[in-house]
Write a structure and sequence with these properties.
526 residues, alpha+beta, D-Maltodextrin-Binding Protein, domain 2, Dipeptide-binding Protein, domain 1, Dipeptide-binding Protein, domain 3, nine-stranded mixed β-sheet, four-stranded antiparallel β-sheet, 22% strand, disordered N terminus
Length: 526
């Protein structure tokens, strides 16, 4: 009872804060200006500098305030942004013709020099650890101004997916701003971009506020301001939505969808979001240095039951790391489903799991922990289901919940033998997830800390493929090896639920997995 009262009191305080700040956007003199569109994010971000922290929530925020040379449309197509047009020679020499009317939110012009500076900053592993993977040092020969409004980027090898890399890894800012800022992306310095919304306030763990500006080269958005509230707790997020303090809520728990739909006038959208959720094993940490242990673990997981029981069918049992939707730039979804069904993966079999464990260094079982981020509560439920499965072979599993920001910093640091890996793609390049998880050249994240010479060769060839079709074939072959070694064990491809308050809707088209990666407030209206 006492714990229940404490939780209720905490929720009441949180909701009071949300309600009191409904007119948070203010004029220079401190007077209220507009009511912002309120977006409830299921986790927090620690910085507005996406180069320093590249979680998917950071991308949703960055999309409205900073731009690249190209952008992603709601339909998942590459479209012009700071570059009005472009051309390439054999996917190696890329020329970008810049628009002349682009300005930063402080009114200063976006110059070719700013873009070159931002590109070099984005590919620096120390300055931008979250985006440098898109631009491996050995793959870039030069970037230079080759005309008054012309930038040429020359690669050392062909790269059919280079435009996707720019859309996911380059966010242009002013060199003067960065050099004058003490800590770019912090509450004291914020961020400066050329998009339609300017950052005006950021409180880590609480919220970030953006206001519309008239410096953007594109059409003036109808939405005057956007406020992101960081609300990890599912119940708090629901109550904020129910009481009208939130207009758009992300990551609605699928098992609670019915109660969200009962909120007056609310609408829910379910989409396959191209996300990957699976287990990552570090073969440098005992006992997972033994392949029989990893294979026993993989064989003991009833993935179909997790999808049906926890996600109520709002997910797909995964047979590979990239989802079928990630390949729709090169083939239809049905063909992608068939292709990925053929990738090596472990089927549920307690008998096989027991046989593998019997051959391992820990035939009598062991105890381990699975870590998952608090922003993804369903992963906690899935961890408990996995723990129940593994009891049958003598393995004890404890589910460990940690804050999202801590999880981002901790996963792949070599301290854990097994952990959940979540990846939500930010581009439509077929190889994005595979590059991130398997690239052994130091440019990928590679949270398993695993090296295999053949996957290294395949991922290198995939990145430099001259066509996306060729890349797709190479990443499938790399997945085969990693999954047979049980370094990564795909569990499911995710589906997300988004709640819209009464009156908020898309102007046209459907909500897609690319929607919040575009300049998305343009797509909405009251």
């Amino acid at each position: 009872m006492k714990r229940c009262m404490i939780v209720q009191a905490a929720l009441a305080v949180s909701l009071a804060l949300f309600s009191c700040s409904r007119t948070e956007s203010r004029n220079v003199d401190g007077s209220p200006s507009v009511n912002p569109l309120r977006v409830a994010l299921p986790g927090s971000i620690a910085t507005l500098d996406l180069g320093q922290e590249g979680g998917i929530l950071n991308y949703y925020v960055t999309a409205i305030t900073q731009e690249s040379l190209v952008a992603i449309s709601n339909e998942g197509k590459i479209i012009p942004a700071l570059a009005e047009s472009w051309e390439d020679e054999n996917a190696m020499v890329w020329r970008f013709f810049l628009r002349s009317d682009a300005k930063f939110q402080d009114g200063s012009p976006v110059t070719p020099e700013d873009i070159i500076y931002s590109f070099n900053r984005a590919r620096d592993p120390l300055l931008s650890p979250s985006t440098s993977f898109y631009f491996p040092e050995e793959s870039i020969e030069s970037i230079e101004k080759t005309g008054e409004r012309l930038i040429t980027i020359t690669l050392t090898e062909p790269r059919a997916g280079f435009l996707w890399a720019l859309a996911g890894g380059l966010f242009v800012t002013s060199r003067q701003f960065i050099e004058s800022a003490e800590v770019p992306g912090s509450p004291g310095d914020l961020v400066l971009g050329s998009g339609p919304y300017k950052a005006v306030e950021f409180v880590p763990g609480s919220h970030a506020l953006f206001e519309r500006v008239d410096t953007w080269w594109g059409p003036l958005p109808e939405i005057e301001a956007v406020r992101f509230d960081f609300i990890e707790d599912d119940q708090t997020r629901f109550l904020a939505f129910q009481q009208g303090a939130v207009d758009l809520a992300l990551n609605v728990p699928v098992d609670q969808a019915a109660r969200w739909e009962q909120v007056n006038g609310a609408e829910l959208e379910f989409i396959l979001d191209r996300s990957y959720q699976g287990l990552t094993f570090d073969p440098n940490v005992e006992p997972f240095d033994d392949p029989h242990v990893r294979k026993a673990f993989a064989s003991a997981i009833d993935k179909d039951r997790i999808v049906a029981g926890i996600f109520k069918g709002h997910a797909q049992t995964a047979t590979a790391i990239p989802s079928p939707q990630q390949f729709t730039t090169v083939m239809d979804e049905a063909a992608a489903q068939d292709m990925l069904a053929g990738v090596f993966h472990y089927e549920y079999s307690i008998e096989k799991a027991k046989a593998e464990l019997a051959q391992s260094k820990v035939p009598d079982g062991f105890t381990t922990t699975i870590s998952y981020p608090s922003a993804y509560q369903n992963l906690g439920r899935a961890s408990l289901a996995i723990a129940e499965n593994l009891k049958a072979i003598g393995v004890t599993v404890e589910a460990r919940e940690i804050p999202l920001e801590l999880w981002v910093n901790e996963v792949g640091n070599g301290a854990q033998g097994v952990a959940w890996m979540i990846y939500v793609p930010t581009t439509g390049e077929p190889g994005e997830i595979t590059h991130w998880l398997l690239d052994a050249r130091g440019s990928g994240f590679n949270p398993a800390n695993w090296f295999h010479p053949e996957t290294a060769r395949l991922t290198a060839e995939a990145r430099s493929a001259e066509t996306l079709e060729a890349q797709a074939d190479l990443v499938v072959r790399a997945n085969n090896i990693a999954q047979e070694e049980a370094v990564y064990v795909p569990i499911y491809w995710g589906e997300t639920a988004v709640a819209f308050s009464k009156g908020l809707r898309l102007k046209e088209g459907a909500y897609t997995s690319f929607t919040l990666l575009s300049v998305w407030p343009l797509l909405f209206e009251w």
